[in-house]
Design a protein that fits this description.
The chain is α/β, with parallel strands linked by helices and 377 residues long. Helix content is 39%, strand content 16%. The structure holds pyridoxal-5'-phosphate.
């Protein structure tokens, strides 16, 4: 096995993978309708539930072929009963995506907006639930990847259940990194895709959630032919297969990634991501960068730095300098402030971040940006 050129991806997914995961895609050709392949998916589905400590009787996982957004689409269009309304608790770009999905399907919904740099106000959330007894589904994002803010899902989930609604949480940028306990966190459905916390590849996404709610959703309106949670679940239960062609090679890679996940261990893996995150913040602090999210409200995986007030600052130039040297940095995703992001996902460690900051500082100096960076006022 020749080593593959290693890039350190500091973008919010896909993340840096190990060579063993990369090479796990190289397998003899197989028709995914063979029993051998269905057997692989069974183990994979169970592992995905175990990662969030779900009881296999009560919770299940359903796989889809697509990028992470497919999960948001599926949960929202499949889990809303007739005559009910969606409530999106929205403090960022990914919850806004859920609002757009409601708009595209023409679903009655409330877009409960909060500032992107603040946690949702739980009193307002509760009042909204109280005032709108027809809310059947509440959706929010665990770690708003656009900024890196951590939302209080356990507390929100308790309110959602008090008012008898279903709680779907976009955990795409925390799953298999920041520990989640689906039951204790009051989550009915969470979701992710293989290229983020699992450190595998794009093309495989999955929803982990409450089996009895999925079964009940059999009678909810079917709003999509390809993206319906119950129909895909039913197919898995009956045949062990996806309804349509699965992403075969990504599934092989993800099974290898899961082996590596269990070998590293939940606690050690989270400790590693935290080390990387702390090293990123220390590096940004040393260079004088300000961040958008208060330290105590960060999810520990995304650092969102504000552009300095320097006429020579050019994200493009800094990006290109780093990219040519094997480090990928990423623009921000908030409309009010110009930011860039450095993320702690993937098969990387503290030493990679030390190496990165050597290159990043060179990039600033060589493009004429004053270091430490300056802000007006
Ligand atoms: C990455 C991500 C997604 C999925 O984005 P895709 O580009 O469709 O893979 C969804 N939600 C969150 C919070 C994410 O970080």
């Amino acid at each position: 096995m020749d080593p593959v050129k290693r890039n350190v991806l500091l973008n919010p997914g896909p993340s840096t993978t190990t060579d063993t995961v990369k090479y796990a895609q190289v397998v003899p050709d197989i028709c995914p309708r063979e029993k051998e392949f269905a057997g692989l998916m069974k183990g994979l589905r169970e592992d995905l539930v175990k990662i969030v400590h779900g009881d296999l009787e009560k919770y299940t996982s359903v796989l889809f072929c697509g990028s992470g957004t497919i999960n948001i689409d599926i949960c929202i269009n499949s889990l809303l009963a007739e005559g009910k309304k969606v409530l999106v608790i929205n403090n960022g770009a990914y919850s806004s995506r859920a609002v757009e999905i409601c708009q595209f399907y023409g679903l009655p919904h409330i877009d409960l907006k909060f500032p992107v740099d603040q946690r949702p106000d739980l009193a307002v959330v509760e009042q909204t639930l109280k005032d709108n007894p027809d809310i059947g589904l509440v959706h929010t994002t665990h770690n708003e990847t656009g900024t890196g803010i951590l939302n209080p899902i356990r507390e929100i989930g308790a309110l959602v259940h008090k008012y008898n609604a279903i709680f779907t949480v976009d955990t795409t940028s925390t799953y298999a990194m920041r520990p989640i306990n689906i039951e204790e966190d009051n989550i009915d459905f969470c979701m992710a895709s293989a290229q983020k916390g699992l450190m595998s590849f794009t093309g495989l996404s999955f929803v982990v959630g409450n089996r009895s709610i999925i079964e009940k959703s059999k009678d909810f309106p079917k709003r999509s032919y390809y993206c319906n949670l119950y129909l895909q679940y039913e197919c898995f239960e009956k045949t062990g297969e996806m309804h349509f062609t699965p992403p075969v090679q990504t599934i092989y890679a993800t099974i290898q990634a899961l082996k590596e996940y269990w070998a590293e261990g939940e606690e050690a893996k989270w400790a590693r991501h935290t080390r990387v995150f702390n090293a990123i913040n220390a590096g940004l602090d040393e260079l004088g960068f300000k961040q958008v999210i208060k330290p105590e409200e960060r999810a520990g995986l995304v650092s969102s730095a504000i552009y300095p007030d320097d006429p020579n600052w050019s994200f493009e130039k800094v990006h290109d300098y780093c990219y040519e040297r094997g480090f990928t940095i990423y623009p921000g995703k908030i409309s009010t402030t110009n930011t860039f992001r450095l993320c702690s996902l993937g098969a990387i460690d503290e030493a990679d971040i030390k190496d990165f900051f050597v290159v990043f500082k060179e990039a600033l100096v060589s493009t004429g940006v004053q270091v430490p960076v300056q802000y007006k006022g």
